[in-house]
Every structure is written in structure tokens, then in C-alpha cells.
Amino acid sequence: xxxxxxxxxxxxxxMLDAQLLLTQAQECLQHLELIDNDPDACHGLGNALDSxxxxxxxxxxxxxxxxxxxxxxxxxxxxxxxxxxxxxxPATAACLTLLAWQLELADRRTGRLNLDIGEQLVLLSExxxxxxxxxxxxxxxxxxxxxxxxxxxxxxxxPPYQGRASRTH
Length: 169
Hints:
The protein has 169 residues and is an all-alpha fold. It has a single domain (2-145), classed as Four Helix Bundle (Hemerythrin (Met), subunit A) (Up-down Bundle), CATH 1.20.120.160. It has six helices and no strands.
């Protein structure tokens, strides 16, 4: 019972932190809409998403962790190189909007999402195309087991991130 209480408390703390980090990411994106490729805003966006993904992973919130990790890792190379072009901002905003919905719809007792991942795959694919980064979702077997996909994909690019979008059952 103590474990349940501590998880419940940790989940509530995560939800508060997640909202703050999401707000920070959205503010960085707004800043990038005003000032192209601002390195501080890019860095802030990446850090907010990285922190959110790590916190979700530590708490075992698979769906949020994998989506946020995929988003952060698609943006990391372009932000690090200072090449987050204006054309990528609407796709990034759409991804952040979906993340906001995921946080809103996550079960407040378990942290799980009972959502189809189709929309997140579409948004991540669109973002990958705009930022010219490879994106390949995990194979079905790894997705089912909840593990990082290390199998070859149908394209020649290696898996672009150490997470994956997950499917809920």
C-alpha cells in the first residue's frame, strides 16, 4: 500500500513537472517563431523535452516517455546544429499539442494512455520529413515487448532514436 501511495504521489508530481516542462517547450517554440534559430530557445526546447522524457521513463510512463523521446531526438540534431528552420515550427507545434493532449488524457492513477498511436506516428513522420531526419517506428515485436528496437528496418537508415512509439492494448 505504501508503494501505491508513493507511486500515486510520484505520478502527481510528474504531472505538475510535465506541465511546467511542456509550457517551457511551448515558450521556446514561440521564441523561435520570433527569432529564427535562436540557440538558447533551441537548447531550452531540447532540454525541456529531454527532462520530460527522462522523468516519464523513470516513472515507467511508457507512452509519454517514448513519444517525448522520439520528438526530442528528432529535434536534437537540428537544434544542436542551429538549423531548426521556420518550416519545421508548425510540425513541432503540432507534436507539442499532441503531447499536451497525452498529458491531459493520461490516467491519473496509472499514468497510462489508452490511445491509438497513429496520430503520433503521422506527426513524427511529418516532422522528420521537414527537419530531414530519419524516423522509423519500432518493429511490431519490439513494440509488443516494450523494448528498444535494434532490428534492421525496411529502409537503410538505422533506428533514429533509443525509444519508440508504443501501442496501447
